[in-house]
Design goal:
Layout lengths: L1 E2 L6 E5 L5 E5 L5 E5 L12 E6 L5 E5 L4 E5 L10 E2 L7 E3 L4 E3 L20
Antiparallel strand pairs: 1-2, 2-3, 3-4, 5-6, 6-7, 7-8, 9-10
Length: 120
């Protein structure tokens, strides 16, 4: 769930696996919603988190597709899809004007295993 700073609108993410986002007014009236399962722009697979930017756009951590998507407040994709393997969360640092997307441990990178001495 995330609240739009300017309007007080509330966006609620139904996470797994369908990725539907409901939008409510500050008084609780349902204003609509959007979302569909898939990998095309505007579709989501296992979205984990969302955040509302100061201008009302909605950022979604689309974990199943390994990307970050930006939507208008009404649900239209408004930015290019940002590939980001390992994305599990998204937050806004309004003071710094930054969108933060911490990655899960490992981020899809292979870690070297313990070294073993081979015997002949």
């Amino acid at each position: 769930m995330a609240v739009a700073p300017a309007s007080g609108e509330v966006h609620v993410l139904s996470r797994l696996p369908w990725g539907f986002i409901d939008r409510f007014s500050a008084t609780g009236a349902r204003l609509g919603g959007w979302g569909d399962t898939g990998s095309a722009p505007g579709q989501m697979e296992y979205p984990e988190d969302l955040a509302v930017l100061p201008d009302g756009r909605v950022a979604v951590a689309d974990a199943g597709n390994g990307r970050l998507q930006i939507f208008s407040a009404g649900g239209l994709p408004v930015e290019r899809v940002i590939p980001l393997a390992g994305v599990r969360a998204v937050a806004v640092d309004a003071a710094a004007g930054r969108l933060l997307a911490p990655l899960s441990r490992g981020c899809g990178q292979r870690r070297p295993g313990p070294r073993r001495r081979l015997q002949r």
